[in-house]
Amino acid sequence: MTVIVKLFATLRNNRFDEKAVDISENSVVHDLLLKIGITDKDAAIIFINGRHSDLTRKLEDGDTVAIFPPIGGGSPKCVSEMGSDPKSVTEPENLIKSSRKGL
Known about the structure:
The protein is α+β, with helices and mostly antiparallel strands and about 100 residues long. The chain has helices at about 30-35, 75-80, 90-100, and strands spanning about 1-5, 20, 45-50, 50, 65-70.
């Protein structure tokens, strides 16, 4: 069966914008990602036929799959100082002030 895959933002780098991809019957989104060389982690947002989906959704012939990378923002310094748990920041106002020094 064939699905249409649309990549967005940085996922297009050295790949494609839109492409018809042949996959096996009973494939799920995760299987499609493996076939096109995108990790589950890099496929942060997935839409199938315009509706939000996840890695376990079974694909149907003719589906259109839109894949977006993680989207973020803010100062890299600020994010690295926060660590993996934003609740661990005890004085957020000082963190904000320090991240603005470079502006």
